[in-house]
Amino acid sequence: MFDDFEALCEFVDAGDDSSIVEAVEVYEQLKPALEEAEQQALLSEETDPNNAIVSINAGAGGTESCDWASMLFRMLTRWAEQNNYKVSIMDHQDGDSAGLKSVTFMVNGDFAYGNLKSETGIHRLVRISPFDSNARRHTSFASVYVSPEIDDNIEIEILDKDIRIDVYRSGGAGGQSVNTTDSAVRITHLPTNIVVTCQNERSQLQNKETAFKVLRSRLYEKALEEKRAQDALNEADKKEIGWGSQIRSYVLHPYKMVKDHRTNFESGNAEKVLDGDLNGFMKSYLQWTHNATEQA
How do beta strands 194-198 and 266-267 pair? Predict the structure, then answer.
């Protein structure tokens, strides 16, 4: 069929306008296969098909940033629901007066990590604050970190001397047994200073197992980042994520626009993006990284 399409295009180029309609019809039949082939090319890294572990942390700014973190959590979970992924919360910490200080959750489904890896970085919000009685404009930051869930076939060495495990009483919902026992677990990986917590399971053992799963995932992703930096795939991969290197801005005042600073992809419908319409941003990121890889 592709050969037929090429032949029809040649006829059109030669001035045969009668072939235009047939060429369009053949293209429409080819389009699903072409999109699938492009998707396979863009999602070809080893861990792209895996489930994703997503962590969101509020930046400096108190209530404003905590509210922004909760908006990002809603945006990403809405995207997951719209694309038939399953979401399960692994850990969360509420803000002091609103929103979330932090949340970690699993997104289960084919190519969850491959799609969501575009969201790793600092997200910046500009809006009129609903918490400011003077209705002033505020800028808030929150970080998103996405890593692939890895199975036991991938060896990640975690030495006992390299970790510190703390247990404490959970502050979240989950039933009486959660709140009255030291079931929550925090693991600190000393060489990298990676800290993971889990408090959503009922037992300390379950929380410990889940926290180790997140830690293995984070260490694996860190190793991937180091490899990408060594291979010099692109400058963005070599940057350490910091508050001054936001990947995307969401402006709700004085105009409305969401813009990705890596790919320059943007949308004028900020509300739709915040409601989970992220596929355009994700695809543009995959194309951007794929092109950078080919040019390297």
Answer: unpaired
